Amino acid sequence: MSTELIYSDATKLAELIRTREISPVEVMKTHLDRIEAVNPKVNAIVTIADGALESAKEAEAAVLRGDELGPLHGVPFTVKDSIDTANVLTQRGSPIFKGRTPETDATSVVRMKKAGAILLAKTNLPEFSYWIESDNLLTGRTKNPWNLEMTPGGSSGGESAAIAAGMSPLGLGTDLGISLRGPAAHTGIVSLKATHGRVPMTGIWPREPRRFWHVGPMARSIRDLSLAFSQLAGPDGQDGYSSSAIPFDAGIGSSNKRPLRVGWLVEPGFGPIDRETASTVEAAAEALKGLGHIVESVRIPALERDFGLDVFSRLHVLEMKPGFVKTTAGRSEDEISYMARFMLGLPDTPAADYIDAVQGAERLKDGYAEYFQKYDVLLTPVLPTPSFKHDQAELLINGQTIGAMGIMNITSHLNVTGLPAVSMRFGTSKEGMPIGVQIVGSWQAESTILYIASLLEQVSPVSDLHPNL
Length: 469
Description:
By secondary structure, the chain is an alpha/beta fold. The protein has one domain (1-459): Alpha-Beta Complex (Amidase signature (AS) enzymes), CATH 3.90.1300. Helix content is 37%, strand content 15%. The chain has 15 helices and 15 strands. It has helices at 3-6, 10-18, 24-42, 52-65, 107-114, 157-164, 181-187, 222-232, 275-290, 301-305, 308-328, 338-345, 351-374, 412-417, 446-458, and strands spanning 45-48, 76-80, 118-123, 135-136, 140-141, 170-175, 190-193, 214-219, 261-264, 294-297, 377-381, 394-397, 400-403, 421-428, 434-441. It has an eleven-stranded mixed sheet with strand order 1-3-2-6-8-7-14-15-11-9-10, with helices on both faces. Helix 9 (275-290) links the parallel strand 9 (261-264) and strand 10 (294-297). It starts with a helix and ends in an 11-residue tail after the last helix.
């Protein structure tokens, strides 16, 4: 098995296929072999797509014929199991949906295939995509490839673990409050949560609360995120939130003619932050300063007034519960995970609290609008701490104990506001676990954060590291 192929990014694989240096069949076989070798340890892949190898043979024939090729022609990709894939099991991590096979692809899958990518497999998740770990009663628990005793996060933890372990070069995940960025940070890969609505949610479940849900790419390189996003973005006429027709985005990107203005923030506003994590963010800030950008420590008063996770929780619980009630009606308890049962047991948010949370969300948006009048980018942690053990109910950070849901303290406010963010590794804990940084931009300014991420990638002290499996 070629280690070079296993850890090549999607852009490189597409280039090698296009120049006939390697065939799509060899690429597909290599990744299928890798899945067979390491997935029993990690449990990230839950279904191999029927016809993946046949599709690779068709892709090879197209190359040999000299057909016009898409930018991802012949490249395998994986998809979180909450995203519909035509004629391939999509079971949503739940016994309730065991054996479910959609007739059509989600819009995001359609667009990946149109770019020439080949569906390889589906990846694990918590039931209903709802938890900070990827574990469920149907397909079991996914483990972190860097340490099998640790979590890869949730809810796109199967996707992040598959990519980190070399089972897939590129994939699709979803994000309600953490689920693209947290798992990427846990496992040392990269992910993009674009501005809300830039990529349609059509064909993805659940959709409530739709104003918080995102779908986006996960990969091992920033250029892969940029390439995938360029294929995924744009309205599809079905998702009402996906209405922006801005070509790629309104950001500065690599065409900027001036130093960018970068603010970095660890505390206050996010709760306690692990010291190694804080140091990693400061190191990334110093790296950008060394590259000639204007970098300052900042505070955002809106984050100190309205705690993002609190606003998120009061809003989404009331909006998500009806869907949970409908889906689980008439089902026995042994078909429903702990987190779904926990959600069903929560009291409804009182109307006054809900309205206050709506106004809190507006204040957060206003606060960020004011911030981005002065700065181009905000640099923060992704998570308050590196990965932790499975089923850990509490986290001890700098002498303070927080519930495990506090892992969302730094990510959930970006779902409330709809702002875009990149998650990427920039450090390593003393236990050898990845530590990530989050690069936040203004609305529709994806190219700005992808550009900054690409600069950090070039000077990263942790590039080209892979787990030992």
